[in-house]
Specification:
Blueprint: E1 6-7, E2 10-18, E3 22-29, E4 39-44, H1 50-62
Antiparallel strand pairs: 1-2, 2-3, 3-4
Length: 81
Amino acid sequence: MIPGTVLGAYRLLACIGSGGSAQVWAAQREGQLGFRRLVAVKVFRLDITPEQAARLAETLGAGIGHVPKHPSLVRAHGAGV
């Protein structure tokens, strides 16, 4: 990934973390760049088939908004492949 890449509704601004399976990017929702509200986008590296990717996106999408209340957890706003 490079800064400026658009993933779904989000434009990646800067990589703020990296690990063995994913990178975390500071991003802004596309079309709202003037509002300066930042979000974190986690980009996983996956070696899976398109069919597996579709099932994964469906599973992740089903969990949107269903996060237990805890100060260390954030609410997911979107998921996709």
